[in-house]
Model the fold of this input.
Amino acid sequence: MFRLETEVDRERRILLSGRLRDDNTADSPELRALLSTSAEHEVPLEVWVLDERGGIVGGLTGRTWAYWLHVEMLWVEATHRGIGLGSRLLAEAERVARTERACTASRLETWDFQAPGFYRRHGYEEAGRVDNYPPGVTEFILTKRLARAAGRPPTAPR
Done:
């Protein structure tokens, strides 16, 4: 006999995540190849723009995993938009991902009223879209190949 529950349970979520990761790794030679490489674990990546008093006027949060940068949030205070801070945040995150974490690509999601044009101007291309998510809005999934830094190429997964 089985029963379904809808309770939020952190311990069960952690257990489920581990079991899914184990099954996925067992079933995917590509995921197994990441084991024991620098790209095996998700690593947070954050870039901040601070004013002269140390207040946050912009920021980018994301993570790197599997030789990819995943940009989660990018925001610049309205009074400081249009002077290149968003571009600087994105460029610095891509630089760190590429040169310090051997990332070869970047991905993000953005809504149609947010910044798809901004990201396209920075070399991102549409990989997918979800219409009506949320209702009346289109979500874009955008990706970009990151140019390899000069010098030795990143170590390939084993």
About this structure: The chain is about 30% helix and 30% strand. Confidence is low (pLDDT under 50) at residues 152-158. The longest strand covers residues 56-65. The radius of gyration is 19 Å.
